[in-house]
# Entry
Amino acid sequence: MFIFRKIFKWLEDAAYVWRFEMSQVIRDEGVLLFCLVVPLLYPMLYSWIYNNEVVHEVPVAVVDLSHSHQSRQFIRMCDASPDVHVAYYAVDLDDARSLVSRQVVKGIYFIPEDFATRLNRLEQGTISVYCDMALMLTYKAIYQTAMAVSQQMGAEIQKKLSGNYTVREDLVTTSPLDVKEVAMFNPQGGYGTSILPAVLILIIQQTLVLGIGLAAGTARERNRYSDIIPFHVCYSSVGRVVFGKALCYAMVYAVMGAFLILVVPRIFHFLQLAAWQDLLAMMIPYVLACVFFGLTVSCLVHYRENVMLLVVFLSLPLLFLSGISWPQSAIPGYWQGVSWLFPSIRWEAPSVISSLRCVHYGHLWCFISFWLTSSIVLR
# Structure
């Protein structure tokens, strides 16, 4: 009976902490903002911005110093493409740069004087492409259009020099290997489909850490001993305190996480490879890992403003360490070791095998962070 009484007391204390923490979440405007409002609105706004996936008729300026048949053909073919629109003809490169600086155009095609001369001498011609890198979508449209047009013009030159008699011979000359490119997981080749799923997962971690950190900063400011645990609560073990706090945030983000991984991708038609049952099953250890990670980080927060500085500083490095915007194979080994400290990095791998391994990583981080938080940091 003593054991059952002790277990009941443990659960009763954990329920009190859960009730106290839930009331703080509801009453604190900052915590309520980061735990409810931001996970609901920020993914919708970010997904809406990149919902088009690709852009068309990107305005460019052309500096044609060659004034030849070949240069005019290149310009016409670029203008005829669906992605690029030749909006201005600049006198020189400085004039074109001024158009880019005023955001009138998004890129420049520079054709030198010896372009046609080098082609007529059977030498390699050069066309310089200058792109505004402020938006990856416009850069991709301008650069890929120039590459496609140059390859097509090169194929036409090969046909004229080959001396073939049939269309079949011309096809073999220009394309000896028939390669068909099939984009399996990103059919449109869009920026949103490739990076937004990782951003949605990162939002869960960042908002959780912000909310838990703000709540911890508020508790320290109101507690006369500057402790996270309320001064009128005394426990022989802080495990029940950690459990009660974790239960509070896990309940909130059980709803927020399901909204982010199931509702948002369906609204904006993002590709989902896994079934919703598998996504929810993998979401359980991930949310718990983020909760305990947030509790660990909250022990470093002594004022409400500290967590803002910490999370803002870590946001961009975490995105790069995930391997989404930078190849993970090019990341040094010690930085990959640092990435193991953050739950979101284990989730942002695109392959199915990596996604299944994330369940194990999430459980491992839950146990490690729970032990760190309960046995070392909080006391």
Notes: The radius of gyration is 29 Å.
